[in-house]
Amino acid sequence: MSTDSMKKRAAEAALEYLENHTILGVGTGSTANYFIDNLARIKHRLDGAVSSSEATTRRLKSVGITVLNPNTAGHLPLYVDSADETNQQLHLIKGGGGALTQEKILAATSDLFVCIADRSKLVEILGTFPLPVEVIPMAHSHVRRELLKRGGQPTLRKNVITDNGNLILDVYNMQILEPTKLEAELNNIAGIVTVGLFALRPADVLLLGTASGVRTIRHF
């Protein structure tokens, strides 16, 4: 079975977590796009959605789903998004699509965070996928030096400006043995807007698409 087929399985399984007349948060990326495609079939059950990126906003609107301002939508009962990597504790690396700051905000304001992914995203130790870090432009050099001190190899993501007007550093060769500790440490580096490590607020449920079906892993 193809990776895309496994992504589609996970995306469809997430529909079971939707309640009627709800507002939900929606993430960014190829798996999240499959979820939006599924939402189009049941959009009458939704009161609207809060989007994590301009790209997701366009896709939601294209299928007729109302996109709400996160400041007026309030607390979200459900947030559905994908991941670039996840471990068994549902600590995630996110931000391959460049929307890590908005995604982290939606995760923080949601009661239930459901992560949808194909089986290749589940790893024993995070860090094979480069860790995205959103950086204020004037702090780029400072943040790069601080990341080098911590053993990473930061590389500026070329020709990318986030929806917030910032840069992204992709940090290679970091074996993340203590995700919550590292996230807290990086959060204190001046100039970092967001680090794409979702460990202090992990996913609550992981729906993992596999060739034999959808595997569910819950965070306790």
Instruction: Note the gap between the termini.
Output: 30 Å
CATH architecture identity of the largest domain: 3-Layer(aba) Sandwich
Question: What number is the mean pLDDT?
Answer: 95
- Fraction in helix: 25-40%
* CATH T-level topology of the largest domain: Rossmann fold
Largest sheet: 6 strands, mixed
> Which class of secondary structure composition applies to the elements?
alpha/beta
In terms of per-residue confidence, which ranges show pLDDT below 50 for 5 or more consecutive residues?
none
Structural commentary:
The protein is α/β, with parallel strands linked by helices and 220 residues long. The chain folds into 2 domains: 3-124 and 200-218, Rossmann fold, CATH 3.40.50; 131-195, ACT domain (Alpha-Beta Plaits). The chain contains 7 helices and 13 strands. It has helices spanning 3-13, 30-39, 54-62, 70-73, 100-108, 140-149, 179-187, and strands spanning 22-26, 46-51, 78-81, 85-86, 92-93, 113-118, 131-135, 153-156, 167-172, 192-195, 197-198, 205-210, 213-218. It has a 6-stranded mixed β-sheet with strand order 2-1-3-6-12-13, sandwiched between helices. The protein has a 4-stranded antiparallel β-sheet with strand order 8-9-7-10. Helix 1 crosses helix 2 (30-39). It starts with a helix and ends with a strand. The model has no long low-confidence stretch (mean pLDDT 95).
